[in-house]
Design brief:
Elements: E1 5-9, E2 13-20, E3 32-39, H1 41-51, E4 55-63, H2 66-77, E5 81-88, E6 95-100, E7 106-112, H3 121-126, H4 128-131, E8 136-140, H5 145-154, E9 160-166, E10 180-184, H6 190-193, E11 197-202, E12 205-210, E13 218-224
Parallel strand pairs: 1-4, 1-8, 2-6, 4-5, 8-10
Antiparallel strand pairs: 2-3, 6-7, 9-13, 10-13, 11-12
Length: 225
Amino acid sequence: MTRTDIACIGAAHMDRIARCWEAFVWRASNPVTVMSSHGGVARNVALNLARLGQRVKLVSVLGEDEEGAAISAELCSAGVDLSDVTRLTGLSTASYTAVLDPTGELMVGLADADIYENLGSAHLKALMPSLAAWPFWVVDANLPEAGIGALVGGRRTVLHCRCLRSRPPRHSVSCPISAISICCSPTAPRHRRCCASRWRRRPRLWRRERFCVRSGLSRFYYVGR
């Protein structure tokens, strides 16, 4: 496999899955089994690309806590460049908790992700000189809209936007490598998940279109050369 330099920009957090032993009962205590793991769209993509032998940078924000330290240690051991991962004092590393019924159906999802509001326009514009050295970007659509806009506006090689939907098995999905990949997680807030921004280059003009995609476990929006 050809070695490629790829920057992954977006979420890195803790995932917790609480699976009920019996039928879920609202407004009551439900016995569950809880499993924890590291997650986040950008973190997941970065780690797996590194395992495939690619040169990878992660751009994200973590809290100054045990969870942030554990995520950093795992990625560092895999060879992911963390020079643009910011540790923020006074904020907790983001987390997502899914409560499932005994059959595995989602009953409720709890996202503690306020820390990602720090991945806005000003923060990402400041990192643009560093990102300019990385020819390919993967951008998590959980980012604030202004942050995604700053990235697209700063990427001069972007010509048009295309959409790819990924369904299980996810590892079998193939597509041409693009200048920017914008990945939308099903755990994203509804207003971001179903109304992602689509950018298309026109002569002398950037035009943003809004569109809705509700099907599939994962949603990927990518901008190619």
